[in-house]
Amino acid sequence: MNQPTDQLAQLLRKLPLDEPRSELITSRVLGAAARPSPSRQLPRLAIAAAILVAAVPVAWGVLYFSPATAAALADAAGPGGFSHEILDNFGLGAENITAQSSSATSSGYRVQLVGAYADSIRTVVLLKTDPPGFVGGFAQLTDQFGATYHPSNGEGNLLTGDQVLSFEPPSWLASTTGMRFTLTLNALHVLDGEDVGGSWTVKGVVLLKTGKLLQAPASGSLGSGTVRFTEVRYVGRVVSIQAEVRGVSLDEVPQVKQTKPSPRFQVELAPTDGRPSKPTNSFEWSPSGDVMKVHLLFVNVDPGTYNLILSLEGEGQLQRTLVVG
Amino acid sequence: MGQTLAVTAERFCEQYAPAVCRFAAMAARSPSEADDIAQEALLKAVRGLSSFDARRGSIEAWLWRIVANVAYDHQRAERRRFALWIRLSEFRDSPAESAESLAIDRIDNSRLLAAVREMGPRERTLLALRFGADLDLRAVGLALGMSEATAGKAVLRALEKLRITLEVKPI
């Protein structure tokens, strides 16, 4: 070898690596080896799968006209294999998800709808893409009554192709009858950083989870402005707070020497008993005349008493107690 | 599975798991993939221990053939995974470096690892066997079904390719 390749070889030998923990791997391997090989279970699984396949066409005709029944049956399955981390980030437990099994393939990419969830705050769909890709371009949800819903949030794991898209909550009509929805996608953002065009349409059924309206905190001052809380809802371990802000701007302020703007407006929901875990939050606002309509979302909120803190850089802070549950 | 085999499997893992894990960490493109490769390869080997025939070669050669095949299968499946794109984008978007900073002794570990992970499945497997698992060229050859000499040339070619990827000029 010449000198550069010798040096490279030495560097590779000494390269610090994020190695799997061999004792953990060993423990898993020995545990798995002690169980029967999957191939020995195959005949039983194949029989079960054959029975399921035979039963599906019979059931389908009945279920189409009864979304509530379909969803109730699907609820039993759960979104097996879906990333718990992503579900956690959306405040969703597997037990809340209605399993779905619709898929579409276009341009060599398969999009599978594996689960859905709906409440009075949001409609959430769980997708798996293979090969992995992020939903890009146009994503639209429509219900059986023709109402359309736009995406508000999304997250994915590009190692597994798991992703969650959050849309507006079901319309009153759909929430009453159960929502039979159609998700239409026209692009996936893939490995090379390019969008792959295509046409993916998947369909599902979901029932609205019931939540409860909480006592809205009292209005108060935030610096030179005022905040009025108009609605607080709690459903599926998520707290949704609607508020109106007057007399002060929430816009982000670019910092000197930094390209990213600093968050001028920040919110926090902290347990009053000092528990270390704080729910993650997101918020958005839109101007409406001289009022800013603010929507705060806190996920993974357990019942309890919390301090709701709104901070506005250079202006001040507003703190209120919020009882959840 | 009998008690005798369970003990053998335990000793087998105790002896080989660390090297398999280090190999996997270099051959994989993510920690989770490394976990999968190490676990799947060792499980295959442990499950096959009872049918291992010592007359057909050493247990090390048999193990590393399994490991290399598992890694190769994973790597092919991983080629289009987006995480790599993110990692490589970060790598490519970093500010241009001067010629001096491209000297080998100044290559930082993250750049080197990123460059290894940018290589094809075959080269990554070669480098991970040779420098991750620290196998000699004969063992690398046995794992990949080639002679020691061919393995040596293949490793050298992979290193040259890595050097070019890193834009390191020969001194």
Molecular structure report:
With 325 residues, chain A is α+β, with helices and mostly antiparallel strands. Chain A has helices spanning 3-14, 22-34, 38-64, 67-75, 84-89, 172-177, and strands at 98-106, 109-119, 123-130, 134-142, 148-149, 151-157, 162-167, 179-189, 195-206, 208-209, 212-214, 220-222, 225-235, 238-246, 253-254, 261-262, 265-271, 280-288, 291-299, 304-312, 316-324. Chain B has 171 residues and is mainly α. Chain B is built from 8 helices and no strands. In chain B, helix 1 (3-27) packs across helix 6 (121-132), helix 3 crosses helix 7 (137-144) and helix 6 (121-132) packs across helix 8 (148-165). Chain B is globular. The interface between A and B is large, with 39 and 56 residues.
Topology:
The complex is a heterodimer of chains A (325) and B (171).
Chain A (H helix, E strand, L loop, with lengths): L2 H12 L7 H13 L3 H27 L2 H9 L8 H6 L8 E9 L2 E11 L3 E8 L3 E9 L5 E2 L1 E7 L4 E6 L4 H6 L1 E11 L5 E12 L1 E2 L2 E3 L5 E3 L2 E11 L2 E9 L6 E2 L6 E2 L2 E7 L8 E9 L2 E9 L4 E9 L3 E9 L1
Parallel strand pairs in A: 2-10
Antiparallel strand pairs in A: 1-2, 2-3, 3-7, 4-5, 4-8, 6-7, 8-9, 11-13, 12-13, 13-14, 14-19, 15-16, 17-20, 18-19, 20-21
Chain B lengths: L2 H25 L3 H18 L10 H20 L3 H12 L15 H10 L2 H12 L4 H8 L3 H18 L6
Helix pairs in contact in B: 1-2, 1-6, 2-3, 3-6, 3-7, 4-5, 6-8, 7-8
